[in-house]
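Field: sequence (string)
Field: structure_tokens (string)

Example rows 1 and 2, in order.
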Amino acid sequence: GPFGVIAEAARGMAAAQIRNIATVGGNIAGAVPCADLPPALGVLDASVVLWSASGSRTVPVCSFFLGPRRTGRREDEILTEVLVPPAPERFGAAYERFALREGNAIAVASVAISLTVDRSGVIGAARVMLGAVAPVPKRAMEAESRLTGCELDGAIGAAVEAAMAAAEPISDVRGSAEYRRELVGVLAERALRAAHRRAMGRTP
């Protein structure tokens, strides 16, 4: 279904033993830049519900993160729900990640993309989120604008370039900033093609 992108993101996380005890809320609330679920939930326009004794409030996932391990959650609040709205018609989403090894490896770079299309395949709306290449899961809005109103083949090159330009990677033991930016391009193209196939009803 349209929310298979969540399963795609969760499937690559950590090891099976960790996945069996970890929670969706924990993966979000930890605010680790390389976390897998936030980009996937971001392209689904998801929100989190934060509860405290004084009441609850709802915050979009895309604006929940303030920095590495920093969120808009107050000390007296707990994250109680993740809300994902129903998908529109002809909607597709995909998540692509790259890690240095299988199993417990954290993402070096990741890209989540969602699209809606008309019957001929023209993109009506797009959401592009980057993971592990910025202090917070980052929305690549220029990439989105390059896609909107266009056919995929005519727009994919410019959209991929815009996604790469939106990345703010650092160099560390897992790879250089330049390497991560190149990865964003590869992953963005894969995710775009997969999301478009799914929006057109051609799964997977």
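Row 2 begins here:
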Amino acid sequence: MKTAACALASALFLATPVWATDVPAWQGFAANSQHTAAAPAKGQPLDKVRWKLAIDTAPPQAPRGLRGASAALAHYASPMITAANTVLVPVKTSSKGDFEIDAVAGKSGKNIWTMKTDYLLPPYDWVPPLPAQLTPQNRLYIAGPGGTVYFRDTPDSASGTTGQFAFYGMAAYEKNEKTYNSNVMIDTPITADAKGNIYFGFVVLASNPAGLESGIARIDAKGKGTWISAKTAALDPQITQVAMNCAPALSPDGATLYIAVSNGSIGYLVGLNAKNLRPRYRMSKPLTDPQTGDDAEVWDDSSASPTVAPDGSVYYGVTASSTNTDEHNCRGWLLAFSGDLATEKTPGSFGWDETVSIVPAKAVPRAGTKGAYYLMSKYNNYIDCGSGDGQNRIAILDPFATQQDKYSDVTVMKEVETILNPTKSPAGGVYEWCINSAVVDSKGKSVIANAEDGNVYRWNLATNAFSQQLYLNAPTFEAYTSTLIGPDGTTYAINDATLYAVWK
């Protein structure tokens, strides 16, 4: 992989890709650069599995006590889908973390091409996903070693131009490949803006010739890169890293890049100038637990990422403070901010390891709101933490209205609708919702989410009931994953290390 890509990239560093006629149906994590998780088409009925594909040939396993004999402790990357319905699937091919992208036809699941990467995982507890993104210009970016990225154009074809970029320069990388490969790793999903510029977080483990420190990088479509350290982005010398698995998000006008940074425990949400990564906005204090007033926890085991709403508000999930985790039943908090991060708004009652989706107000016809949208949130109440009763739900929240939190004395976002997982768990209560970002089918007035019980569900927002469910596999405790919809209405759900394509 590396030899061919380097040779091509060295030849004039390759031209900017031609603007695609049709924007991809699903660019990557949570669909787009604001992470709204909006479906590109009305979802087909969840009648049957059209095809399936293993996305991890050696899932990590660990004992989980009450939750079952074992668990797949890994976060899995979202597939990407072109406008022509080619599905680009990140696949883990070994226990040590070798990866590839399998391009398959959305209709049949038939393989079109495969591209391997020698990307090296950063140090981890739960296995991180392969960072990858499809730009509006139909260029696929995949994380490579040493903080580099590979790209491939014309992903609908069996062959396409490939290359490799380094945000600190390919000449520097090629001169000291071993050093960079050992000490610099991309550790967040990749996000692309409307012009094809990409953004990601990276971790640096030791000194290097370029003087890199853990931080945030930007690469334009011609391969020119820039970066900023996490501590400079936060204007705090105690900050040491980007929050692991935190996908950068962009403001609706593309001018501001939002990402979380931390010292491995507490941290900030920051807003950077998307053109040059200079600090633009920063909270006046670290992310805070609304109940205790203490610093909230920003865990590397989480995959929470900012969601930016159409009005510019920013939503980001955190774990409760270290003194309060059990008291709030390990639910964490959904923190809400104005676009300039100067004003903190009413929090949501759940935030641990989730990225909320944006639900247009018209998709919830029974409710009324002062705003133009609601938030779709995971709403588990873990039975093995604090006073949690195992009544695990998903929720539609109104960020413009309030109520008393059921689990604390905090005023939180109003619950417009909630719905309980229907399957009893042997651990007590019901099975959890294993989602990070759930797809919003606004044309179908529904949300599609997959659960730990092995089913994928259509939640009808007009009736607040499950109008459909489809059994995929036996219940498996696993990391939270995304659901998505393709341009033909096919639903894609990950369960038990398998990608399922579901339709009528």
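free_text_note (row 2): Helices lie at 2-10, 170-175, 177-183, 230-234.
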